[in-house]
Amino acid sequence: MAKPKITAELLRELPKTDLHVHLDGSLRPSTLIELACERKVKLPAMSEAGLYKKVFKESYRDLPEYLQGFAYTTAVLRDAEAIEQVSYELCRDAQAEGVRYMEIRFAPQLCTHDGFDVLDVLKATARGIERAEKEYNRKPAIRSGAEPAFRAGIVVCAMRFFTEGFSPTYAEMLAALADLPREQVYGIASEAVVRSAIKARDELGLPVVGIDLAGPERGYPAATHKRAYELAHAAFLGKTVHAGEDYGPESIFQAITDCRADRIGHGTWLFQASRIEDRSIRDRRSYVERLARFVADRRITLEVCLTSNLQTLPVLNELRKHP
To answer: What's the pTM?
Structure first.
């Protein structure tokens, strides 16, 4: 029997799940320009070609350079209309690619300002999702059960690191807690966003399904956010952590043990003993073998993001080098 031919059309039509997609990393370039013009946000370029050349490049020096692009996307996502539009468009784009269940993650606290809090941001996101769901799911084939319906949930991101310039919310928090060590403030901020996520789900009925921890790993350990993850765990929220993307295997272990992660975002260096930086780990090969077994035995899902890794990790300049 001949093998079926794998075509782009077939891949689009196959029903898929997308567990790791960032709302503020998924704006249509045309929409980013439109929103920037309307809201008087200055971009490095005001054409799609210019944005692809200066911001949304095929490769970057490192993850921090890659993350700089989010400063422009979050700058235009500061009101309900923009957030609802972008959420709606992301869902419609995903539907066109054959995605039938998607978890949209982002840090709503980056979009807040006076009179527009985290719950307002999440409500706007949910409206965009609901609109896209209704439009797609009214198709006769879906109503008859012949095709799967589209659904989307929200994963609320805490931040490993932030400064005053990230958002007014963070500026106010850092000013109010100026006497505390920065690491402690990071943890308090994460607890606050988790409490908002729980309230959004339990009191407002919004489709919040989990929490995430995003941002650079190096120098900003997941253990700082242990209390926030304990709150999420007690509330039966899903728990994922960006780990093993910008740091070694020990970061993955910390995410699982300190934050009780059900899933690991990326986990790129899980098998790479050479990436271990903790000097107390003497037998590196044995460590990664045991860690991989630990992950597998507990059925911890790895959200492997091939295209993202090729963009942010220069050493992976072609797909066949991906571990």
So the answer is: 0.94
